[in-house]
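Input record (one chain):
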Amino acid sequence: MDKKVELQVLNITNSQAQVGAFAMLLGEVDGERQLPIIIGPAEAQATALYLKGIKTPRPLTHDLFTTSLTVLGVSLIRVLIYKAKDGIFYSYVYLKRDEDIIRIDARTSDAIALAVRADCPILIYESILDRECLRIPDEERNRSEETVGDKESMEEEHESSSRSATSKTLEQALEQAIKDENYELAAKIRDQINQRNKNQ
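The corresponding structure, as predicted from the sequence alone:
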């Protein structure tokens, strides 16, 4: 059976290519693999506010859902990312009441927003993580941030070159995007590499 790996939320940033969208970076607990996913503004706000300890005057939708579960005696025990297709990630949330465990399909962005509130594990099948992840060496992750040129022009350069690039060039573009902390672009290049490998 496919092994499950635990993830944690590392960062949430504005999307540089998609207006109104955000890039959430998930990291392997006790590992170096990282997984960027694109999420909407509501889910980005809900997750970021909670992680920063900022309380809103009125409860957000995910706060309401979490409170409702508590009142009903239901616990959110884990989230599982069980599928990835065409850049979209699919998740289950697992709820427990007494001895019963219920599995519900959910958008990954919603599932993670609930998971951080419930302080429950965010899991992913290792085969999916291994296929979709960005591998960032420890020395690169710990390196102090370097001054880089205009990120938008660099992104255009990466995207332009990657369209007709060889596999080696794509790998180099992926490495550069990771160094620039442009995880959204890195995810796009990763998808191109996966598509090339699939077609070979």
